[in-house]
Design a protein that fits this description.
The protein has helices at about 1-15, 45-55, 225-230, and strands at about 25-30, 40, 65-70, 75-80, 90, 90-100, 100-110, 115-120, 130-150, 155-180, 185-190, 200-205, 210, 215-220. It is mainly beta and about 230 residues long. The strands form three sheets. Strands 2, 3, 4, 8, 9, 10, 11 and 12 form an eight-stranded antiparallel beta sheet that branches.
Length: about 230
């Protein structure tokens, strides 16, 4: 009889400890499309403007790809994994995650690097729970065509039109939560450095919005365009 009671107690305890997923919330606020001034007129001749801009661009970290004075066109580019929100705005994300003693609230710029916890699609034997620690590493490429055209003998018009490509890699650690010990332990890093964790890029131009409805949307902040035009002051 004592053994039967013990078995019943054990069954009762574990049947009441079914796997419990974390409570999590997610809210995404897309960016507003703002007008970027990407064209100015300077009080210099075409040749003076051209020579000055080429010289000053060579001193920046932007890469000059093509120079065609006859076509009045310059092409410059850059790539970065840092300070991406300076160049593009992909909105703001607010996440919360609560599982026993782990309670996390994070607000981050979607264009930049971020970390957060989320439930795992794959679960293990009850009463334990697995969840994921996500690492979002973004990557940005920007390329601009700079068109320089004489207005008259003493003035020159300069227009900058940029094209952006933003994407990110989502890597993860798998965390095991054991309620009997209230412990959170990393058990797997299988999600690291896999090509299939690299998401398709979002591409867009100056004064345009890129992305899909219901997903991440991105716009230029105007820094790239403004940095170039400031060289003409």
């Amino acid at each position: 009889m004592k053994n039967i009671v013990s078995i019943f107690i054990i069954f009762f305890v574990f049947s009441g400890c079914a796997t419990t997923l974390a409570n999590e919330t997610y809210n995404y606020q897309p960016p507003a499309l703002k007008e970027i001034k990407n064209e100015i007129t300077v009080n210099k001749s075409f040749s003076e403007t051209w020579d000055s801009l080429v010289s000053d661009l060579a001193k920046t970290f932007y890469v000059i790809n093509n120079i065609d004075k006859e076509s009045r066109l310059l092409n410059v580019s850059f790539s970065s994994t840092n300070n991406i929100p300076d160049y593009v705005d992909c909105g703001i994300t607010d996440r919360s995650f609560q599982l026993a003693s782990r309670n996390e609230d994070v607000i981050y710029e979607a264009a930049g690097y971020s970390e957060y916890f989320t439930n795992s699609v794959t679960q293990i034997s009850e009463p334990n729970t697995t969840y994921l620690h996500i690492f979002r590493q973004p990557y940005l490429e920007g390329r601009a065509n700079i068109y320089i055209a004489p207005e008259n003998n003493s003035q020159t018009k300069v227009a900058v039109n940029a094209r952006y490509s933003w994407q990110y890699r989502a890597e993860f650690d798998t965390i095991l939560y054991m309620p009997l010990y209230d412990s959170h332990n990393r058990v797997d890093r299988a999600g690291r450095a896999k090509d299939d964790n690299l998401y398709d890029p979002i591409s867009f131009n100056t004064n345009q919005k890129g992305g899909e409805s219901g997903g991440v949307l991105c716009v230029s902040t105007g820094k790239f365009e403004t940095d170039i035009l400031k060289l003409l002051n």
